[in-house]
DNA sequence: TTGTCGGCCGATCGCCGACAA
DNA sequence: TTGTCGGCGATCGGCCGACAA
């Protein structure tokens, strides 16, 4: 996966160590956060424990995306320094050292509203996104419209009809949008990241809302003055 | 899975050994046919070979169905006799010894036509199936119709509208049929087995057509007299 | 600027009898 | 007896502007 697109999808909160820098590998944190718990068998001691920290060198970083959910993750190859060899280590979040500020690219994020995610609708494009990411429309046309060619993080191409219409005027994605929503199983609360790289190529990334504490909207209690039903 | 339903779905060609009987376990045949090849490591000899046959006792039989495809398979627990212990063995087809003839139940099979499997249609119920499996219709009604409650091999309940209509009259499944076709991903050539057990409960099983040599129908060559296009 | 709604039109789904194999 | 077809009504998907937050 292209690292530029990866960073845009991961968000500014995601920090990765620079290749070659020294980091602490924290097995317990890895075991608690990883989707597939690592196997510490080869390094566990007679007492069944392994050391709490390993000093390591970040030898290589791989940028990846889940083929099903498009969620991004990084795989960091760690070389031990002065301690026993630890196992191969995927998914090491937030070990803050450096981030590439080579922003010749633009990225805009939007949280999907229920109108965006509901079937039978389009996608309301934020004005700033249309202005700074998408190619300019021919405003002489009636209505101004174009087809956008956008790649997801796997490189798969999606096309969307981008139209500027309604009173007052607004930017919308129509044809192609619902196919995308269904294919990616997007729901209200998920976020999209639209990315324009230095070559002008368009990408779209997904940040899923935490499904864990998803709360069902509830009817508010009646106002104090209202008599009980 | 209920063994009665299992046998109806497996068909009359499927033979299972009686529990307690002696059978030959044939590792190479197992390895060639099993979807997940067995691991013979613990019994392989220094030459990398394991014996061609094991005499075993069929200690227990489990009746199972693939949760995705509904295809049935059996798991036979084998106890070795006079040889080294073999590994646990799933899926041992056709070791012909016995089959339970306790047929207080009825089963009828039909291969799906393209009209059955195409969306936008119902299912033509063979006359014999309607007469011998389904509950009798009230022929005084116009048209005669009823809702059928039928369980798949996992026990999941499906409902179908069974109607007797058209000129000339015929039995059809309409409402509920296309949902079933889509959920089970049925295509023309697959077969259904309708089963009525001794209690009068209805079941439906699936036998998938071999996807391997599925051939696309081809236009026949023009008659000899026809001039070339 | 943009989230939600109702209208509306076209596409699809799915039930029907006709008809012939 | 039953496989396939065309018809057609109901439903749904999806594009639209209105309107208000």
UniProtKB/TrEMBL annotation, chains A, B:
Annotated signal sequence range: none
All residue ranges annotated as the TF-B3 domain in the record: 108-210
Localization of this protein: Nucleus
Superkingdom per UniProt: Eukaryota
The family this protein is said to belong to: Belongs to the ARF family.
Function recorded in the entry: Auxin response factors (ARFs) are transcriptional factors that bind specifically to the DNA sequence 5'-TGTCTC-3' found in the auxin-responsive promoter elements (AuxREs).
Assembly and oligomerization: Homodimers and heterodimers.
Name the UniProt record assigns to this protein: Auxin response factor
Organism lineage string: Eukaryota, Viridiplantae, Streptophyta, Embryophyta, Tracheophyta
Shown segment, full-protein numbering: 12 to 240 of 517
């Amino acid at each position: 996966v292209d690292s530029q697109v990866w960073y845009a999808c991961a968000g500014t909160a995601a920090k990765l160590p620079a290749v070659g820098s020294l980091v602490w590998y924290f097995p317990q944190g890895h075991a608690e956060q990883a989707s597939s718990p690592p196997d510490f068998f080869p390094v566990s001691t007679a007492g069944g424990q392994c050391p709490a920290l390993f000093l390591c060198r970040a030898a290589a970083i791989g940028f990846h995306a889940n083929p099903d959910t498009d969620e991004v993750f990084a795989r960091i190859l760690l070389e031990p320094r002065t301690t026993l060899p630890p196992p191969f280590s995927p998914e090491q979040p937030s070990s803050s050292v450096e981030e590439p500020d080579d922003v010749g690219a633009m990225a805009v994020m939007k949280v999907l509203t229920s109108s965006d995610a509901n079937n039978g609708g389009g996608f309301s494009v934020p004005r700033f996104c249309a202005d700074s990411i998408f190619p300019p429309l021919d405003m002489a046309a009636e209505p101004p419209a174009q087809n956008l060619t956008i790649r997801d993080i796997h490189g798969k191409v999606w096309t969307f009809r981008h139209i500027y219409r309604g009173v007052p005027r607004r930017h919308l994605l129509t044809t192609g949008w619902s196919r995308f929503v269904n294919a990616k199983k997007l729901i209200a609360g998920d976020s999209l990241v639209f990315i324009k790289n230095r070559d002008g190529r368009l990408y779209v990334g997904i940040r899923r809302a935490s499904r864990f504490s998803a709360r069902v909207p509830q009817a508010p209690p009646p106002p104090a003055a209202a008599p009980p039903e």
